[in-house]
Amino acid sequence: MFVLSRLYGYAGKVLRINLNNYEVRVEETPKELVRGYLGGRGFNVRRLYDEVGPEVNPLSPENKLMIATGPLAGLAFPIGARLNVTAKSPQTGLLGDSNVGGHFPAEMKFAGFDQIIIEGRSEKPVYLYIHDGTVEFRDASGLRGLRVSEAYCKIRKELRDVRAQIALVGPAAENLVKFSGIFFNVCRPAARTGLGLVLASKNVKALAVRGDGYLEVANPKKFEEIVSMLEESIYSHQQYWPRRVMGTSRILLAANMLGFLPTKHFQEGTADYSYRVSGERLALEYNVKNRGCFSCILPCSRFYVVKYGPYAGYFGEGPEYEALAGMTVRIGNKDLNAALRLISLINDLGMDVISVSEVISWSMELIEKGFLSKEEVGLNLEWGDVDSVSQLVEMIARREGFGDVLADGVAKAAEKLGRGYELAFHVKGLEMIQADPRGLKGYGLGFAVSSRGADHLRSEPFIELADDPDLGVKLFGEPEATLRLGVRGKGRLVAYYENWCAVVDSIEVCKNIAENMEILQPRQIAEVLNAVVGMEVSEAEVLAVGERIVNLERAYLVREGVRRKDDTLPKRFLAEPMSNGPSKGHTIELDRMLDEYYEVRGWDPTDGVPTAGKLLGLGLNDVVEDLRNRGIRLSEVATLAAEGSVGSGVNALSNHQRVRSFKLFGGG
Amino acid sequence: MVGKKLVVDLTKCVGCRYCELWCSFKHYGVFSSSLSRISLIKDDVLGLDYPTVCTFCNPAPCVASCPTGALSRLDNNVIYVDSGRCTSCSKCVNSCPYGALKLDPNTLKPIACDLCGGDPICVVKCPTGALRIYPTSVIKYGLEELSRLLGKSFEVALQAHKELMRLWGVRIE
């Protein structure tokens, strides 16, 4: 165990705001929380487990919304600054969690706080102005109904502070849309799992932060050395320029090449018009400059101006791959201009574009298959009919007509409609992202076991795209582990990457750079923590933090009733072979991968519940006690083989040569 | 600063504020946007990213406005603040036409860019080349004769290019 003399890197305080009585409490950032969970996602899930139990209704005042950042935000650390928002999700009823970049996290630390906890419910609509250790509750009655960009401008005028960073909800959240997000810097949403609705349910329209504080590192000289080294490895990385020119929008064309696009609601894995809606085309014809997150030297966000057609003169920031693919191929839309307009509209109304793309493409497929009539929808909702899509988006945000059916998310919509269950593409109530797991089997396993539902960012096992069997043997003792269509070794692969991602989400840096570009491997994270926080921590201990977070999240889900049966994928991916492209003929062999995954994790393969041995080994003794007190049966010991196999993955990866020539990322 | 020119290229600035943090770290050993001599002005609807820097105006309104003579201009053109004479009246801050001068939130004394003694850390660390120091130079290229001989269109193009080169510190004659 390492020794912490003081909390270098951190702001050192936690802000607790109770809206029932407008009471504000400032607490020290607990050192045991730092040691065990590092920050961000780890901080939040620990408190959520402790303070928001299964009896809490997500939309009740008892739910708590937590915003936490990590030890690196606000420092001149070249991999950006992010934060995590967590609450019990009104969309899934389970773990609500979303991670976002931009300028808010650093300003929050300059204002003095590592974590902000919002409890209760305000009687009147308010927004919170948090600056230099204090909180102002400001009247938000004039902000109700305002779109994200409108509210941002109005709050800036009211605060008369050009540097205040603002997070807010749009009208969708006020109208109780389940997949509404919290929007930072106007176009950077913490959108997944409906956290905007939680904030709105507390009668809070926005948070603004501003601070004159400063942050220190434990070893400034070492910090400078590490930063110089990281700068060089980022600037010299072969993904640097493609990412800077296109951000993640470049994935669309690559996904077409490999056959995992979600074309027409995952009916096809490719689209013959993919260039027309690609990041490459945006770069050539639309983008005018870049924008970056706070303290990031790879500014990958793009600002565009539309030059032709009915939307000529329209400008904005983005889009990233998820939004781009969602508003193009997933809904059968070939018109890039219309896609940009739709994405901005969805953002401005304050919704998660991934969930919106699912509920709309789901409706389109139901109409195509004759399970739903156009009369029921009230729109001519055919593939690529962007005018109907635009109207439906507004109807969802206002909960009008058929929009009201869709506004609860695809799982509930199928229930309400009594149709289309098997075509409702979600895991644990969260809609599928824009990748077909039949062409990316490790990702598929990741979607199934992800602690927040169908999402790639919990594991992001990009290395399977290397399609290099030798690498698989070297890292995971199994050639198929690093073949995207392989099955064996995927449990080990996903468990390792989940642990790494949990750490990246907790020190709150950019996953694209830290993980996908392999700039911050666990060994380097240990070095950074040493220089910044003064933690003497080993690579294995860093990964143990990740494993602890993943297990705690699992325990949270188990406490809410989740078991192995819930770790599944929509039937199309399990049973219908891919219809076209390079992944043609494939389904996803989920059960085999799950068996291996649970074994590696030290979870009971019959029900997916962590064993007591595993939880105790991670120091989660109180969790074992809590689960047992609630009558949840835990197996006693983890299989020793499982512990060994995670360990070997760790050692192997730390020694491997960096592989940068992945086909997907424009290298090979 | 003689023979060098600090250039801000707005098409390249991404608003990452890496410059702010290194500025505060170099001067104070800590990280704080409020302690930075360079400040990013941003608007996320408009995509505005504008680094506000001292332009070293001559004559300098901040120096002229100081009632106690705490501000003065050094030989290398930068503003020197004599903290002992400063009364934290903020007149200098208000007089700056660019909003580039601010008070240290802890000491309430103005903090003015010192160009880090000639090798500004903001420029060194800028990831996109939005901030750059260019050496100033003069190139004799026989412009007038060239323009006369190569015609009107060349002359117009050359004028535009001259402006561009001027941004890069090169004066064409």
Report the mean per-residue pLDDT of chain A as an integer. Answer: 94
| Number of distinct helices of chain A | 29
Secondary-structure-derived class of chain A:
alpha+beta
- Fraction of helical residues of chain A: 40-55%
* Helical run tally of chain B: 6
Main sheet specs of chain B: 2 strands, antiparallel
Give a topology summary.
The complex is a heterodimer of chains A (668) and B (173).
Chain A: E1 13-18, E2 23-28, H1 31-37, H2 40-51, E3 65-69, E4 83-88, E5 95-100, H3 104-110, E6 115-119, E7 126-131, E8 134-139, H4 148-159, E9 165-168, H5 171-174, E10 182-184, E11 188-190, H6 195-201, E12 204-210, H7 220-235, H8 240-246, H9 251-258, H10 263-266, H11 279-285, E13 287-291, E14 301-305, E15 315-317, H12 321-326, H13 336-349, H14 353-369, H15 374-377, H16 386-398, H17 402-406, H18 410-417, E16 426-427, E17 430-431, H19 441-449, H20 469-476, H21 490-507, H22 511-516, H23 522-533, H24 539-559, H25 571-575, H26 590-601, H27 612-617, H28 621-629, H29 640-655
Parallel strand pairs in A: 1-6, 7-12
Antiparallel strand pairs in A: 1-2, 3-4, 3-6, 4-5, 7-8, 9-10, 9-12, 10-11, 13-14, 14-15, 16-17
Helix pairs in contact in A: 1-2, 2-21, 2-24, 7-23, 13-16, 19-21, 21-24, 21-26, 21-29, 23-24, 26-29
Chain B: E1 4-8, H1 18-28, E2 39-43, E3 48-52, H2 61-65, E4 71-73, E5 79-81, H3 91-95, E6 102-103, E7 110-111, H4 121-125, E8 131-135, E9 137-139, H5 143-150, H6 152-167, E10 170-172
Parallel strand pairs in B: 9-10
Antiparallel strand pairs in B: 1-8, 2-3, 4-5, 6-7
